[in-house]
Design a protein that fits this description.
Shape: globular
Radius of gyration: 26 Å
Largest sheet: 6 strands, mixed
Order of helices and strands: HHHEHEHEEEEEEHEEHEEEH
Structural class: alpha+beta
Distance between the termini: 101 Å
Helix content: 25-40%
Oligomer: single chain
Length: 307
């Protein structure tokens, strides 16, 4: 009888100890949840999703996924409004990334793009934050048939010029308030002038030399004046590789050399993103890259291409 009581007591103690170890205290759970909420709350700009379809809308103005034609129309007028507004206000900005690649082909946006990209200097970014943050700008098309409003929103984390937790690499946005599509604006700053003087970087690991950016070239994009980085060819080939300048079929579109336009195919079976020659990588000037054994091929290709 005593042995039975002893075994019963031992078993009860074991169960209690097991539960004490396996089940966290309520205050620990609250602290964990609070930490996760604080971690999530560091992100300023929010999107309704994180895929290619939903990740290119500002959640505050999202009313549903737009059609192909509406997206094209939205981006066309949005970049025209942005470039014209900044030029009229005397604020320097230039096109970047996939937007710059579209300019290289025909001075227009790539029709499969969901958003547009521009850059400004760190000093300009500070000016936008101080004088133009959360302002609305009215746009009217040249033929006076379209009037739209765009919201310029500067990320409060834009003053932090390092990447941080990675949730605020976009410094500002120019947003179409009708549907939430936007232009991403990123600032370039000389973050380490003592170690790398003349090297400008954003918070997404893209780096440029001063001589790659300046003096800016004057050109046009979607029919309005636009500034282009001086060494645009070097920037594009280092960010997208050489294939991005020669591939003529991509994302359900085919390049027509006669009309100099990307023509949409009737059927699009899809292209694996990871295999895409147009998939960008962080731009790092060759002079500060590790040694690369294909430099000779790249130089030869440039000579042939521009001859």
């Amino acid at each position: 009888m005593r042995l039975r009581r002893l075994f019963t007591a031992l078993a009860s103690t074991t169960v209690l100890l097991t539960h004490a170890v396996a089940i966290p205290q309520s205050n620990e759970l609250e602290q964990t949840e609070q930490h996760e909420d604080e971690f999530r709350d560091t992100k300023y700009f929010h999107e309704p999703g994180d895929d290619d379809l939903l990740g290119h809308y500002d959640q505050r103005y999202f009313k549903g996924v737009v059609s192909y034609d509406e997206r094209t129309d939205t981006l066309h007028h949005m970049i025209r409004a942005y470039l014209n507004t900044f030029r009229e206000l005397g604020i320097e900005t230039w096109i970047a990334h996939g937007t710059l690649l579209g300019w290289w082909w025909n001075g227009k946006m790539l029709p499969w793009d969901w958003d547009l990209d521009t850059q400004v200097s760190g000093a300009t970014l500070e000016y936008l934050a101080e004088h133009m943050n959360r302002t609305t700008h009215r746009y009217t098309s040249d033929d006076r048939t379209i009037t739209r409003d765009y919201f310029l929103d500067v990320n409060p984390f834009s003053t932090q010029r390092e990447r941080g937790d990675g949730f605020n690499i976009i410094d500002a946005r120019w947003i179409d308030v009708r549907n939430g599509l936007f232009i991403d604006i990123t600032g370039l700053s000389e973050t380490h002038p003592d170690l790398q003087p003349g090297v400008w970087s954003c918070k997404n690991y893209h780096r440029y030399r001063t001589k790659d950016l300046y003096p800016m070239r004057e050109s046009t994009y979607e029919g309005v004046p636009a500034k282009i980085p001086y060494a645009y060819d070097r920037i594009l080939t280092e960010e997208y590789d050489l294939k991005a300048l020669v591939v003529t079929e991509y994302q359900g579109h085919r390049w027509d050399p006669t009309s100099k336009d990307w023509i949409r195919k009737e059927m699009h079976l899809g292209v694996e993103e990871s295999q895409s020659p147009l998939h960008p990588r962080p731009h790092i000037p060759r002079s500060i890259q590790p040694p690369c054994n294909d430099a000779g091929f790249r130089n030869m290709w440039r000579l042939v291409h521009w001859w």
